[in-house]
Amino acid sequence: MSADENQQAREQLIDLAAQFYDQFELGEIPHMSVPTRTKNNIEYDEEMDVWVYGDRESTRSANSVRGARKLLKAIYTIEFLSEQLEEDRSSTLRELYYLSESWDNDEAQFNDQDESNSMVEDLEIVSGVTREDFHMRPEESGATIMGPLYLREQTRRGERKIHCQEDVGEGGYQIPNNPDTIDFLDCDADFILAVETGGMRDRLVENGFDEEYNALIVHLKGQPARATRRITKRLHDELDLPVTVFTDGDPWSYRIYGSVAYGSIKSAHLSEYLATPEADFIGIQPADIVEYELPTDPLADSDINALESELEDPRFQTDYWEEQIELQLDLGKKSEQQSLASHGLDFVTDTYLPERLSEMGVL
Amino acid sequence: MTSFQSTLGDEPGIAEELAESQQSISIAEFFEKNKHMLGFDSGARGLVTAVKEAVDNALDAAEESGILPDIYVEIQEAGDYYRLIVEDNGPGLTKETLPKVFGKLLYGSRFHAREQSRGQQGIGISAAVLYSQLTSGKPAKITSRTQGSEEAEYFELIVDTDSNEPEISVEETTTWDRPHGTRIELEMEANMRARQQLHDYIKHTAVVNPHARLELREPQEHFKFERATDQLPEETEEIRPHPHGVELGTVMKMLTATDSQTVSGFVQEEFTRVGKKTADSIIDAFRDRHYGREMRWRPPASHESIDLHAAVEDATANKGPDATTAFADAIAEAVADSDRIAHFELREAVESAAEAVEDDHGTTFGDTVRENAVEAVWLELIDVTEADDDAAAETADEDEPATDADSRLVADLYDLADDATSTRKDDEVIHAFADRLAGKFEDPEDVRHRFTHETLREYVDRAADLTEEYDDVSFGETARENVTEAIWDIMATVPDDPPLVRELDGDRDATSNLVDAMRATDIMAPPTRCLAPISEELITAGLEKEFDADFYASATRDAGVSGGDPFIVEAGIAYGGDLPAEGTGEVMRFANRVPLVYQRGACATTDVVKSIGWRNYGLDQPGGSGLPNGPVVIMVHVASTNVPFTSESKDAVANVPEIEDEIELAIREAARDLKSYLNKRRSMQQRRKKQNVLGKILPEMAEKVAEVTGRDEPDIDDAIARIMNNVLVERDVEENGDGQAVSVVVENNSGTNESLEITDIVSAEPTNLSDGANVVEMDGEWFVKWEPEVSSDDEAALEYEVPDDATFDLDVKGVESEKLTVKQ
């Protein structure tokens, strides 16, 4: 992270403040427009092959007490971020929330963390600087990589060269908050296998799947953090590795795939930078539930709602997903990754994954 | 049973025995036993009632003689009793009438007059005297002096309850310092537990009688209520009854008593607001009820094979061919020319045709000929010559619906019924109905087809019932009503002369028709000169005088009529200020300017106030009904020539629908003003709140923005004015050679047009003043006055030049301070 980059991010923030300043001077009501961050306002960018925000905007204006408070908070946040950049420090989103308590102005303090999170998102969008470049990080990422990859990470304590199979324990290599500090040195992997749950990741590592199939096992840890998505994209773009995603067979897990492949609604302004549209979904597919006779749970009402809402989600409007989701609604059932264990602990590595990956043309 | 009967038979004297104990009761005796009916049911209440009766009398007396009332009330403790003294500055009473006024129940000048006054029956004050003598055994002591007389009369008297006559114990002349007036002193068993009601009564009296001066002296306290106006209530006049408010019995009595010969004369003479035109309308309405209307049928259309010409010719004999043809022509033409024609209209046409032909041809057309012609044409028109299928239509034979030979009436009624009923009704059904209805028309003996609305409705009902029964369809109330009205509308009022008054006299049914006709006719509301409403202005003045509130509203309705008596309802509302914010609001009830302090729950006024949804008007109302909460006083005044009270003690207005409706409208009218006041206040509060918060946040934001960008603090007044939709008045001063050019710019950011009054006080003489402004010099200061009208989102500027060292001071009026931002 160079001082230059810090400076650039800082200037962009200060420009934003200057914009408010000019509005005051012109006798205008200070305001700030950001794209509306809802499902209805994301659209497909054909050029980039990802989903980005549409034209709908929400305006934060000092016209109302609420809006004025928001803008006041924005100014305080800008000040904090620009100081942080100047000092080359970093903080977590949660720290920002608590830190606001120390601000001299009661009106500027955040009421909850959702508010401060969304404020950072607003500023990201309006200034065009990513959160990482503001030196803001989420609480924990903890996502890991295991596989034949040799890389160099620029840490605050100097450069580290790490092999993600040989230099790490069973836990794998921990992905840093800003994966752009990593340079890839060497890679023997044939493809990336992104796995939703920790249990399944551990099963694959224990069964030596990464060694046997030259796979780079990326642990998503549920809904993947930005860093996880960013490194996945870089691995795909820079090393030309195919990306596959292996999750549970329920609507929430499809969204995990969706955010890897198409970007998430909350960070659609960064889709270009985070999403890997070429990523393929391994399963568990609703079709697998039938084919492999997997143990199931019935769909709850919330699951059905989520599936129906996915049918309207622009990210899932492909023939493949419509077919799968309709099938699942017909079945009325869902299955977890680990239900594959009903055919034995090795079933997933010996049978299911090889079969699916061959089908998909990865193996 | 039988044994008892035989006993009765055995003692034939029992009825006589019982009859011996029957005797008439004096009214005074009756009230002696029924004191509660007059409001003297307890010592506490008796005192209040006595004050009330005396004060009401005093006010009435003074007003009647055009004197501004000045009334003094004193309550003294007198051993075991209380002594009540009421003094007024009225005209005084003559020696002859005085004893009767105070010593005889039901003696008064008001009972027979249709005119607004406080007292009506002539019971009140004598009842107080009666109560006093019953409880303390002491006579009433009355002093009265008439204007101009040397001395005052002094009486001590009681009511003789056996004869209901005054019993005078002392009668003498005395001296009195008042030039005119009356003073009454009563001693009675009483207590002061009802002091609150007494105070309410006096205070409320002061509210609705802003022209009166009142003073109340109690053993411990002393209140004075000064006048708010020197304007006496307008003098009232007696009026005749209004046609909308009289009952059958009254009209029958009036018919017997009247000198008029004709109904027209009767209604014009005996009622108010009835002139020739209204009398005609009443009589037309009366004819409709008394005689009924005549059905008007369509004249034959060209395609119908009806030859009226031939019919007339056939019916006319021995008049010579030319005259006969001319006669027939004239009639046929007259019929064809009319849209529809009734029997009497046909008769008129025949009469005029006959006369015209008589003139032209010199042939006499006698009554018989005319009669024959009328009958011939009429029978053609109503198609009686056709086969007698009326019976067939009645019984509606199942196998052969009467389609072949529709009479003209069926076709005519079909069209009417079809227009009047919903389009959903099947054609067949309407047809069947029209057929049956035509049957009813053909039935009656009166070939003229004359009947009342009631009969018409019976016919329609019968036809509809049959249709429902045989055709198995519904023919609802609305459809029946619509058909009835459609037919009734085309029927014609007959020209028959109404009966004379002496014919009506004693004829209950005909009189009832007349009463109905009077009620159905639109008649102007009764004159209000018999009423003396307080007026909106004085209600507000009265409320302002007695309540220290933030807001006052009042409404005076137009006069309405109830039971032949005109009435006016007025309402007033006071809100906020020093009124108690806790608990329910206060309701003040008045009838003819008299406060009603008892039986609040039984009063129509209270019922109406409770029934109003006060939340709509911005007041708190727990549960959405009942009395509103908060700092509010609601007053209602019912003025009438005869206020309907629930009892003789005159504590509560009875629930008369017409009056209740007007009370509601009056209250709502005043409440609407309250609502807009409260809305405005609320929006100003919100604006103030927003201004307070933004006034804090925006400068802080500006400060922070300046800090982050490293610039000077920005100027935020314009932005704030715009955010607050405010009117911004801003001064701009520029160097201009030796002097300075000043411009005062008004920027209206609000949604409405604003008129401002701007005064700029300048320490040196301004020159080159822009248009619309003027300058006044006072003591070395120049007042630049400018009154611009600035429309929404517009600007206006005042410009002038002054020497270098001038100072300014800007004063802006015409815009609420919450909406104004001034930058000097």
Automatic annotation (TrEMBL), chain A:
Residue intervals of the Topoisomerase 6 subunit A/Spo11 TOPRIM domain: 191-357
An example Gene Ontology molecular-function term: magnesium ion binding
CDD domains, per the entry: TOPRIM_TopoIIB_SPO
Boundaries of every Spo11/DNA topoisomerase VI subunit A N-terminal domain copy: 69-135
InterPro entries: Spo11/TopoVI_A, Spo11/TopoVI_A_N, Spo11/TopoVI_A_sf, Topo_VI_alpha, TopoVI_A, TOPRIM_Topo6A/Spo11, WH-like_DNA-bd_sf
Magnesium among keywords: yes
Keyword Phosphoprotein: no
Residues involved in Mg(2+) binding: E196, D248
One Pfam match: TP6A_N
SUPFAM superfamilies, alphabetized: DNA topoisomerase IV, alpha subunit (SSF56726)
Residues of the active site: Y98
Residue ranges of domain Type II DNA topoisomerase VI subunit A all-beta in the record: 139-188
Cofactor requirements of the protein: Mg(2+)
Catalysed reactions, as listed in the record: ATP-dependent breakage, passage and rejoining of double-stranded DNA
EC nos: 5.6.2.2
The organism's place on the tree of life at top rank: Archaea
This protein's GO CC annotations: chromosome
Biological process (GO), any one: DNA replication
Gene3D superfamilies: 3.40.1360.10, Winged helix-like DNA-binding domain superfamily/Winged helix DNA-binding domain (1.10.10.10)
UniProt keywords, alphabetically: ATP-binding, DNA-binding, Isomerase, Magnesium, Metal-binding, Nucleotide-binding, Topoisomerase
The protein's assembly and partners: Homodimer. Heterotetramer of two Top6A and two Top6B chains.
Function as written in the Swiss-Prot or TrEMBL entry: Relaxes both positive and negative superturns and exhibits a strong decatenase activity.
Family membership: Belongs to the TOP6A family.
Name recorded for this polypeptide: Type 2 DNA topoisomerase 6 subunit A
Lineage: Archaea, Methanobacteriati, Methanobacteriota, Stenosarchaea group, Halobacteria
TrEMBL record, chain B:
EC identifiers of the protein: 5.6.2.2
Chain residues that bind ATP: N57, D88, S109, R110, G119, Q120, Q121, G122, I123, G124, I125, S126, K650
Major enzyme class: isomerase
UniProt cross-references to Gene3D superfamilies, sorted A to Z: 1.10.8.50, 2.60.40.2960, 3.30.230.10, 6.10.20.80, Histidine kinase-like ATPase, C-terminal domain (3.30.565.10)
Xref: CDD domains: TopoIIB_Trans
Keywords: ATP-binding, Coiled coil, DNA-binding, Isomerase, Nucleotide-binding, Topoisomerase
Keyword Ribonucleoprotein: no
Keyword Transport: no
Catalytic reaction equation(s): ATP-dependent breakage, passage and rejoining of double-stranded DNA
Domain (Histidine kinase/HSP90-like ATPase) ranges: 42-192
GO annotation terms (biological process): DNA replication; DNA topological change
Entry GO MF terms: ATP binding; DNA binding; DNA topoisomerase type II (double strand cut, ATP-hydrolyzing) activity
InterPro entries in alphabetical order: HATPase_C_sf, HATPase_dom, Ribosomal_Su5_D2-typ_SF, Ribsml_uS5_D2-typ_fold_subgr, Top6b_C, TopoVI_B, TopoVI_B_transducer
Protein family: Belongs to the TOP6B family.
The protein's assembly and partners: Homodimer. Heterotetramer of two Top6A and two Top6B chains.
Job description of the protein: Relaxes both positive and negative superturns and exhibits a strong decatenase activity.
HAMAP family assigned to the protein according to its UniProt record, in alphabetical order: Top6B
Listed name of the protein: Type 2 DNA topoisomerase 6 subunit B
Organism name: Natrinema versiforme JCM 10478
Name of the gene encoding the protein in the UniProt record: top6B
